[in-house]
Design a protein that fits this description.
flat; 13 helices; mainly alpha; MetI-like fold; 309 residues
Length: 309
């Protein structure tokens, strides 16, 4: 019987398989190398550096004098930090809830194939094109008693009207929430509108045949179909909430007192204004953990569940 010769398998071993893969994908690797460098070296390296030096007594400059969890103990005992993260929770819960509700309602209205849809979509999305600094300054003028809403209403003859949300410790965060909603709801609307446009027309035809009202179709049929869009929208919006800084600086500078302070401003002030690098890095590490708490479940849902199926 003649012996049959077998061609050598290019992926017979781990090293040969990797070399073969590298030859096929070297152009893609070269093109994506700046992004890989940024992700691995800059982001990962800086994150490790931040966590490491948050356990030190670093003041103006970094120093490897380890103090254990002293910086974190001081952080969670600080009244300013307590106010900051409570403000962030309030901002996050209210802004996410209202932006999702308002964004979905606006997306549904635009999904009715109305006239001048492109115009309305541009108007809704335009505030998102502005920076938070510009948004903060614009709303600061509107809330200012000398130039804004109070001045206009009093000029109409209502001289007893008072409207000073920025000067009241009980309303200042609501002013920031209003400004944040004005800027961010348009992005939520666009993402949800994109999700609505992916719904199969057969679903709408079946709902009409079964006599299901349109509002029930949106709530109980379309929304569950849009689950991936909703989760992605939630991750993007929640990550933006954790990073809230420039809107607060432009609108209130953390005042009155520290009643509109947020964690990002706390970190910045201690790192660059308070000459306490270790305390600022401890706060930054807590913020990093908060972001990971948001990202890890999303990555598990997006990629882990697909590998199991």
């Amino acid at each position: 019987m003649a012996t049959e010769t077998m061609a050598p398998d290019r992926a017979s071993g781990p090293s040969s398989g990797f070399i073969f893969w590298l030859k096929r994908n070297w152009v893609r690797l070269a093109a994506s190398s700046p992004m890989i460098f940024t992700a691995v070296v800059v982001f990962t390296g800086c994150s490790i550096w931040t966590i490491l030096y948050s356990f030190t007594a670093s003041r103006t400059l970094p120093e490897l004098t380890f103090v254990g969890f002293d910086q974190y103990t001081r952080l969670f005992k600080a009244s300013r930090w307590s106010i900051a993260y409570k403000n962030l929770i309030l901002y996050g819960v209210v802004s996410l809830t209202f932006s999702f509700v308002l964004g979905f309602i606006m997306a549904v209205l635009l999904d009715q194939k109305i006239r001048f849809e492109n115009t309305f979509r541009t108007i809704y999305l335009y505030p998102f094109a502005l920076s938070f600094i510009v948004t903060g300054i614009a709303w600061q003028w509107m809330f200012d008693p000398m130039f804004g809403i109070q001045k206009v209403v009093q000029a109409w003859g209502f001289t007893d009207f008072k409207f000073n949300m920025l000067g009241n410790r009980n309303t200042v965060m609501w002013a920031i929430i209003i400004a944040g909603l004005w800027q961010g709801t348009g992005l939520t609307m666009v993402l949800m509108l994109a999700g609505l446009r992916t719904v199969d027309d057969e679903i709408w035809k079946a709902a009409r045949v079964d006599g299901i009202p349109k509002w029930k179709t949106y709530l109980f049929i379309v929304l569950p179909i849009m689950r991936p869009v909703l989760i992605t929208n939630l991750v993007i919006s929640a990550a933006g909430v954790v990073r809230l800084y420039d809107l607060v600086v432009a609108l209130t500078k953390g005042g009155p007192g520290n009643f509109s302070d947020v964690p990002a401003k706390y970190v910045f002030d201690y790192m660059f204004g308070g000459n306490n690098l270790g305390q600022g890095l401890a706060g930054s590490t807590v913020m990093l953990i908060a972001v990971l708490i948001i990202l890890i479940p999303w990555m598990y849902y997006e990629y882990g569940s697909k590998k199991r199926t």
